[in-house]
Amino acid sequence: MELLNVQHLRTHFRSAEGAVRAVEDVSFRLETGKTLAIVGESGSGKSVTSLSIMGLLDKKTARNSGSITFGGRNLLTLSEREMRKIRGNEIGMVFQEPMTSLNPVLSVGRQIGETLRLHQGLSRQAARTRAIDLLRLVDIPAPERRIDEYPHQLSGGMRQRVMIAIALACEPKLLIADEPTTALDVTVQAQVLDLMRDLQKRTGTAIILITHDLGVVADIADRVIVMYAGRTVEEAATADLYARPMHPYTKGLLATIPRLGSSLLPGEPARLEEIPGQVPSLRKPIHGCAFAGRCKFSVDLCRSKAPVLERKSEGHSVACHLADNGVSA
Amino acid sequence: MDTPTQALPPLPDLFPPQPRRGKVRRLIVQHPSIVIGGSLLVLIILLAIFANWLGTVDPYKIAPAKRNRLPSMDFWFGTDTLGRDIYSRVLYGGRVSLFVGVSVAFLATVLGLVTGLIAGAYRRLDAIIMRLMDGLMSIPPILLAIALVAAIGGSVLNVILAITMAEFPRMSRIVRGVVLSVREQPFIDGAIAAGSTMPKIIIRHILPNIMGPIIVQATYICSAAMITEAALSFIGAGTPPSIPSWGGIMNEGRMLWQIKPYIILFPAVFLSVTVLAVNLLGDGLRDALDPRSATRL
Amino acid sequence: MTTCAPLLELRNLQKHYFLRPNLLGKPTATVHALDDVNLTLSAGETLSIVGESGCGKSTLGKTVVRLHQPTDGQILLDGRRVDQIGGAELKAFRARVQVVFQDPYSSLNPRIRVRDTLSEPLHNFGLAKDAAAVTQRVEELLDMVGLPRDAAGRYPHEFSGGQRQRIAIARALSPRPDLIVCDEAVSALDVSVKAQIVNLLGDIQKKTGLAMLFISHDLAIVEHLTHRVAVMYLGRVVEVGNRREIFGNALHPYTRALISAVPQPDPMNKTRRKLLTGDVPSPIAPPPGCRFNTRCPFATDLCRAEVPVLRAVGGTHQIACHYDNLVEAAA
């Protein structure tokens, strides 16, 4: 069942030095119970896309076009009041930095309970009982005790679990997780990812995972969108993307990541593959393909005409003029 | 899940391109309080500097025949109980207020910088300097100034020294605070690793990065000093009554304020507008210099 | 790798932070950031320090470059103690041991041009006789880190994160050091830029023969570029070995868990797991005995009572565990 349909989403910011074209034409669909990962580096527009869905961009400095259809309504046309009813209720959110997204002067129980009382009209006592259940759900030991503690008394991993508990409090249909494990240590990261996967199985929530970490994506996502400079460059099922990446940028990304086990290869360590150059500025309009300047396959066409996202095989789309010519050199 | 897409025409910007404004227009739009506060202040400073050529008469000239005149074409702001022209006295009095304000701001900044930088940079002296500042700050500034003026006599210079003593601990605290936060920045560690000594680090790396908050605080000290100066003059503990100053004029009009309110009104308005202008300027600078609120994105 | 005396040697290095002094100024809590750390690093070699946040790896780096003063123990450079030196000796030491920090945004003074950032060490250490020599060295450094020469006249904010990190590396290279401490130097960078910087560091090491102390939580990158690895947990070194010994045959249960938790960019390979439960305990009150015992699935009474010391287990491999191979033994 289709839960979310984003069509031709664009987001621009106003700044003193002119417009910042943060997102240029992103489209995707998400089905109930599935996990979609949006992957990209800083400036790719992945976080802005998620903020647009949640309606968290400042209307004064940011402007959207396109449509975001969720539950039959276009979220971009809703008022702040209507968005508030959806946010935290039908769409839950988890951010990168659990310390700054939790209120330091409220106990954990209060923060979970507040969401429940606001959106579901539970009584104080009922909210508390449910909050303890939620803490148990996210594997926090001794939830009866933890519920009265404050964020600073919890470790980073615990705080992120609390954030997930808050996000899941109202059993949202969609959970947006923006770099949920980036600030965590690898051992804790693995725990949190396991938890998210487990919870999804139990609650059937769809997840949008925003991350730069292709390792995390491989672990948890069903489908992947690769973004570059505000554009979707490739979209595919996870296994397909890793096995047959088509866009030179996706290929480059996968090749640059060092993998465990390199020490078992004979000889001295080789150089890592690198993508030369820098991400282009979003302040200037980009003509042609945004990746052309860093792409070793680029031809004149790439610099003059922007490629569109085209379906190349079942469930696998790529925005590259040369994808058919097998740039898989 | 694929989206059918056709070749799209070049996409227009969602924000209409902003008209290319000149530097001045941009400043007005982005920081109106700097422009308003700044121009008001410049106007008042010009009035004080060019008082001689602005239709004033000798502000000291006593004319018993023309006592207590209402504002008129001859005497724009009226005359006081000794027949002196209030307009002239207010303009010349502005010199004292502005001089005191600017001098105190300057001296307090210098003293605050020296003590604050030392306290922030050298841990061992921190506690000593800050307890000293706490001590100075625990005395209400006006009382400290009264005591100092009483002890060393009332001249403009002494008033400046007195108010500076009362105001600079605040600056010192702020400097120390920002120094401590800048010190935590890795580029300071980088400078230490690069072999720089503490004095060099203070001058090259810390000072340029703390000027914003210091300039802003200096404007607040400037306006506070003008108010304190007026208050001191008003209670007769400030500049000698022979020199016209806004506080002094108000003091002289104090007895008659119910019958001749204009004597007290005009210097009061000038004082308020000047303080407002300085504060507006300070607020605007704070917004403009604070990297967090800057219009970047 | 050379066979002569080590370039850097740490002997029983200890760093404690004292917290919350009471009214009399006596600390009421002690953070055990580093306890009894013994490590050596040869010239031209890369030693990586890995571990989770709070394990003391960053403190170790800052202590080695003398930004922090060790509480106890010795730091030796070329066999001479450097943990107590000051003045001219310290200056000479700083010229030989440089550092690159994690955050390329806050590690460069925003108000100083690149040229001045790079020439600061030259002036401080008296390494350039005149302005022409400074200019020449600055250009050499920019070439070395792959930045255009006109970068010298610009300010840090005109550069991207990766370029800034190149500037920071150039600053560290400026006095021709023998050792560079890289404190999470590539962690904050984007994936595609990270590879560029890792390669750059490798190239520079090959060209100049300097030694690197590479502090990182990213095990895949460490495995790629290091010669030797030291794994730290709660202020103690739990395992040391060369690259193959650690990544091919880790013996300490913590090292095993750490390696298995690394996310792999391969959706077919879901063998990572072997999850550690819980979080790192507070370094204010580290557990008695082996500090890992609260999270170790194989911990015994011995582990809870006695602190294991680092001991050789063949080759250059050392572990701080009471058992030779606890993971296999338990399996």
Keywords:
heterotrimer; B: mainly alpha; MetI-like fold; C: 331 residues; 4-stranded antiparallel sheet; 12 strands
Would you write up a description of this structure?
- The complex is a heterotrimer of chains A (329), B (297) and C (331).
- Chain A is of the alpha/beta class.
- Chain A contains 12 helices and 12 strands.
- Chain A has an 8-stranded mixed β-sheet with strand order 6-7-8-3-9-10-12-11, sandwiched between helices.
- Chain A is globular, with a radius of gyration of 21 Å.
- Chain C is α/β, with parallel strands linked by helices and 331 residues long.
- Helix content of chain C is 32%, strand content 22%.
- Chain C has an 8-stranded mixed β-sheet with strand order 6-7-8-3-9-10-12-11, with helices on both faces. Chain C has a 4-stranded antiparallel β-sheet with strand order 2-1-4-5.
- In chain C, strand 4 (72-77) and strand 5 (80-81) form a beta hairpin.
- The longest helix of chain C has 18 residues, at 191-208.
- Chain C is globular and about 65 Å long.
- Chain A: This is ABC transporter ATP-binding protein.
- Chain A: Keywords: ATP-binding, Cell membrane, Membrane, Nucleotide-binding, Transport.
Summarize the structure.
In chain A, 33% of the residues lie in helices and 24% in strands. With 329 residues, chain A is α/β, with parallel strands linked by helices.
How does the major sheet of chain A shape up? 8 strands, mixed
Largest sheet of chain C: 8 strands, mixed
Segments of chain A where pLDDT lies below 50 for 5+ residues?
Answer: none
The number of helical segments of chain C is 11
Strand content of chain C: 15-25%
Mean pLDDT of chain A: 88
Number of helices of chain A: 12
How far is the N terminus from the C terminus of chain A? 38 Å
N-to-C series of helices and strands of chain A: EEEHEEHEHHHHHEHEHEEHHHEE
- Distance linking N and C termini of chain C: 37 Å
Q: What is the general shape of chain C?
A: globular
User: How big is the Rg of chain A?
Assistant: 21 Å
Indicate the mean pLDDT of chain C. Answer: 89
Which geometry of chain A do the CA atoms define?
globular
Strand content of chain A: 15-25%
Would you tell me the structural class of the helices and strands of chain C?
Answer: alpha/beta
Organism (chain C): Marivita lacus
Membrane topology (chain C): Peripheral membrane protein
InterPro entries (chain C): AAA+_ATPase, ABC_transp_ATP-bind, ABC_transporter-like_ATP-bd, ABC_transporter-like_CS, Oligopep_ABC_C, P-loop_NTPase
Subcellular location (chain C): Cell inner membrane
